[in-house]
């Protein structure tokens, strides 16, 4: 069952007619020629719509419930994945999936924020919003990667760190800062991919990498459009206006030098052809790791710090 966004209504209507004709076909009515025409019409309409998405529409695509999640990418791209649990201080946080495995035959440490796909798994993974123990687990896995000289791959899809009272009591801000600090001090290659929503420090704690990649319809921001609208105008309904002014799309961030590569998505978004989207991300990671493998340990560390300092200077000017 396809889930269509509001701005996709013209395409939804065409797909509805296609399904009706297919149902008639099951009843013995030959509608193949008409179905082919409608499929061509739907593809052209989809191409037209997605060629001029607004920042808010890209936000909706980035949040699409059928979009592949971190766990899907790990299953597709990482062989022999062995999950690691717990922060060795308080508890396990399922919002951050982490472990070790092999990417194209090379041992890697992998981390990702996982939203969950069903009501049960969304609750289990806390909708991808990590608590302090999730970031402390990430720090532990990065330390393991450093010890055994494994590249670090991170997959980010989160609205932000969990803002609950318990999380604040257990040192949410400090945990995010320590994870970011650990990422900055790595002397092994690190590649981060924003696969959906990259929200605030909760995303940056895992995205402080040598190479930051973004899917074509992903977003990356210091605060959600709804949050920005609430602060600026005390009106969350002005989220579309906020999104238009925040420069949160992959294309904007590429121009600003915040990300190194925008990974093209299948027509209509990653949720329409998830395997194609995941393979495209795998190819981009492979290219980034190939480039980074030629750089020495000390330069990997210094260039990563310089990269983020340069972003701050360019955005300030």
Describe what this molecule looks like in 3D.
The structure is a single chain. The relative contact order is 0.12. The chain has 317 residues and is α/β, with parallel strands linked by helices. The model has no long low-confidence stretch (mean pLDDT 92). The chain has 2 domains: 47 residues; 258 residues, 2-enoyl-CoA Hydratase, Chain A, domain 1. Strands 1, 2, 3, 4, 5, 6, 7 and 8 form an 8-stranded mixed β-sheet that branches. It contains 14 helices and 8 strands. Helix 1 packs antiparallel against helix 2, helix 4 packs across helix 13 and helix 6 runs parallel beside helix 8. It is 52% helix and 15% strand.
Secondary structure elements and pairings:
Layout: H1 9-26, H2 32-50, H3 55-62, H4 70-77, E1 79-83, E2 96-103, E3 106-113, H5 119-124, H6 132-147, E4 152-158, H7 165-169, H8 172-185, E5 190-199, H9 200-207, E6 211-215, E7 219-221, H10 225-233, H11 239-246, H12 250-255, E8 261-263, H13 274-292, H14 297-316
Parallel strand pairs: 3-4, 4-5, 5-6, 5-7, 6-8
Antiparallel strand pairs: 1-2, 2-3
Helix pairs in contact: 1-2, 3-11, 4-13, 6-8, 8-9, 10-11
Give the tally of β-strands: 8
Please summarize the sheet with the most strands. Answer: 8 strands, mixed
Regarding quaternary structure, what we see is: single chain
Count of domain modules: 2
According to CATH, the fold-level topology of the largest domain is 2-enoyl-CoA Hydratase, Chain A, domain 1
Low-confidence parts, pLDDT < 50 over ≥5 residues? none
CATH class of the largest domain: Alpha Beta
Q: Structural class of the helices, strands and pairings? A: alpha/beta
CA(first)-CA(last) distance: 48 Å
Global morphology: globular
Kindly state the percentage of residues in helix: 40-55%
């Amino acid at each position: 069952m396809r889930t269509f966004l509001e701005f996709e209504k013209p395409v939804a209507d065409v797909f509805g007619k296609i399904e009706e004709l297919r149902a008639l076909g099951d009843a013995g009515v030959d509608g193949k020629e008409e179905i082919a025409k409608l499929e061509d019409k739907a593809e052209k309409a989809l191409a037209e719509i997605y060629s001029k998405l607004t920042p808010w529409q890209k936000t909706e695509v980035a949040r699409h419930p059928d979009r592949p999640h971190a766990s899907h990418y790990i299953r597709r791209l990482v062989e022999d994945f062995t999950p690691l649990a717990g922060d060795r201080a308080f508890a396990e946080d399922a919002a951050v999936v982490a472990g070790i495995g092999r990417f194209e035959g090379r041992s890697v440490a992998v981390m990702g924020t996982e939203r969950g796909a069903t009501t049960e798994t969304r609750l289990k993974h806390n909708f991808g919003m990590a608590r302090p123990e999730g970031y402390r687990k990430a720090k532990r896995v990065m330390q393991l990667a450093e010890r055994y000289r494994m590249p670090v791959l991170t997959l980010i899809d989160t609205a932000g760190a969990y803002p609950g009272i318990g999380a604040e009591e257990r040192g949410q801000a400090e945990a995010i800062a320590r994870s970011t600090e650990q990422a900055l001090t790595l002397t092994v290659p690190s590649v981060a991919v924003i696969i959906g929503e990259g929200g605030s420090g909760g995303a940056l704690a895992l995205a402080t990498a040598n190479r930051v990649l973004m899917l074509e319809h992903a977003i990356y921001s210091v605060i959600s459009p709804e949050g920005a609208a609430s602060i600026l105008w005390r009106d969350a309904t002005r989220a579309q206006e906020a999104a238009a002014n925040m420069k949160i799309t992959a294309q904007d961030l590429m121009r600003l030098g915040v990300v190194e590569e925008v990974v093209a998505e299948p027509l209509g978004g990653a949720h329409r052809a998830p395997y194609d989207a995941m393979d495209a991300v795998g190819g981009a990671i492979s290219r980034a790791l190939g480039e980074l493998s030629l750089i020495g340990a000390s330069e990997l560390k210094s260039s990563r710090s310089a990269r983020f300092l340069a972003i701050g200077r360019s955005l300030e000017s």
